[in-house]
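To make the argument concrete, we let one protein speak, a sequence paired with a row of structure tokens, as a model reads it:
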Amino acid sequence: MTERRNLDQVKREAASCRNCDLWRRATQTVFGAGPVSARMVLVGEQPGDEEDIQGEPFVGPAGRALDRALQEAGIDRAGVYVTNAVKHFKWEPGPGDKRIHKKPNISEQHACRPWLDAELSMIRPEVVICMGATATQALFGREVSVLRDRGKIFRPEFAPLAMLTVHPSSILRTRTDEERHAARTAFARDLREAVRQLS
């Protein structure tokens, strides 16, 4: 119970984070969610529009793509911890009232790193899956690349095992049903490999 309270305390502290300027335009801090006993942590880039409004990670379109892939991989989302490298939604104005996602820069990733480090140190997962380039860069720096190193097993200092895969939003950017199916299948295969490493 002590660990749970500690993670809740960090979440409360993160709610008033002013380490960079992203808080000024975001609705709220979106901290990670899931059990403190999780063996697997999934790290994405940042909250999106729906996440910013609801205050929960991966509840928008990318979250639904993630849920489907987890289901195909035989993973219960309730048993994993999901979070992002950056906890505030970075956006720019689009047509009408639309808020368009903008990639967090290096300094914004660094400003948020203490929150991610706190999550990982308190949960102590057996495997961390970096989903996409920003999560990978935030945890590994520039020497590791999703395109080159996808599916490889790493043994970093922040977890016994780590893997790289694409961000689930990349599935949504495919142009045809066939491409979407192939992208989702490959993503689910990466998740299954993580489970295999756990066992």
Notes: The mean pLDDT is 95. Residues 137 and 157 are 15 Å apart (CA to CA). The two ends are 26 Å apart (CA to CA). The first strand starts at residue 40 and ends at 44.
